[in-house]
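Minutes, project huddle
Topic: does the predicted pose make sense with manganese (II) ion bound?
PN asked that the exact inputs be recorded in the minutes so nobody has to dig through chat later. Recorded below.
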Amino acid sequence: MSITSATGELDAWRALPAAQQPEWDDPEEVRAVTAELAQAPPLVFAGECDQLKDRLADVVRGEAFVLQGGDCAETFTGSTADAVRNKLKTLLQMAVVLTYAGSVPVVKIGRMAGQFAKPRSKPVEVRGGVTLPAYRGDAVNGFDFTPESRRNDPRRLLQAYHCSAVTLNLCRAFTKGGYADLRQAHAWNQDFVASSPAGRRYEQLAWEIDRALAFMKACGADPEEFHGVEFYSSHEALLLEYERALTRIDSRSGLPYDVSAHMVWIGERTRALDGAHVEFASRIRNPIGVKLGPTVSADEALALIDRLNPDGEPGRLTFITRMGAGRIRDALPSLIEKVSQNAAPVAWICDPMHGNTFEAPSGHKTRRFDDVVDEVAGFFEVHRALGTHPGGIHIEFTGDDVTECVGGGHEIVEDDLHQRYETACDPRLNRGQSLDLAFMVAEMYRK
Ligand code: PEP
Ligand code: MN
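Predicted holo structure (tokens), as shared on screen:
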């Protein structure tokens, strides 16, 4: 394929309906910003995306488990060393629990370093009789409820790129620079152990790991893998101008990669078969995820496979189901059955967050920890019954002790939600709830 024809194909989405795109006041400014992004250095390399595809191929074969998570919406002010370290620490702790207690290799993918744009169910937000455009993520407009802040500003796309670079740099440094060494498994827990049941349970497990490591060392084994972890970035490929501007032709293979993240996914609201998002994703070579909600039909899923993975490459396509605890046991079986009979294998992972959101009497958007656990349990039951592989979980969490989801070891109740409700979009599991979930998932995996 010549570079000119590849470029033409990369722009084919422009002729199709693109849902959830912000309207910008000044097209000239958008052109200037995307021209600048098109010259910017890549955030990830094509070879790294291929490596993640290989890891996801292991998941397809039933030999590994995905842990994908992070904020619903990252924010520019939240791109600090402390916040990134806390999220990463929580992700590493969850991964250790799953690897040790579940005895399975864990593919660690942050919903981090690029998750700055949000699809919205309503284009406007009404508060106290005032109507303003909805917040669409820091890449588009501001969270503050004022007309100035809610104005779409294309220059925010540049800031999203820079915050992604800073966040990814921290993640790379933390995961390769000694911090993620398994011998640090205790240190990640230090500030947490006394204050929480999940922390104490984790501490026990960290001691067991220490003993196992000491035993292995005494036997003369000290593998490289214990000294750092592979970490990958991902976000929803929502803003097509941004993703297109960050797409590069890989010099090794001549193929296009979206270098804004290792993996990108298409959301439940933008997965129309004849829409711009599916068209764009079909042209890039990164591993792709697609969210599937309870109304998806098996035919739609098969058509998505046809469009996004026509060559049946294992690891290329991951279906992220988000059915809701009440529906997963009914909606998932026929979907998996038809897909496994008729198409190349995909990785199946469970997002137990987005089908379980409700509004508390206080007006806070929240989720019940028990519903989250129940959806994951349903996911495991369905896969076990069909003999397919429950390939992982996709969650919204933070490393801080927020009060956004109810339940969990600390028993957050609806009246507590106001105490530390800090999310810019959907409610996240806090650190204790995330660790509790990891222990439960490890048990489900082992059964
Ligand atoms: C999300 O992941 O934050 C989201 C909006 O999910 P979905 O597309 O599944 O609704
Ligand atoms: Mn969300």
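Observations noted during the meeting:
- The first helix runs from residue 3 to 10.
- The pocket of phosphoenolpyruvate (ligand 1) is lined by residues 72, 119, 267-269, 291, 322, 354, 426 (CB under 6 Å).
No decisions taken; revisit at the next huddle.
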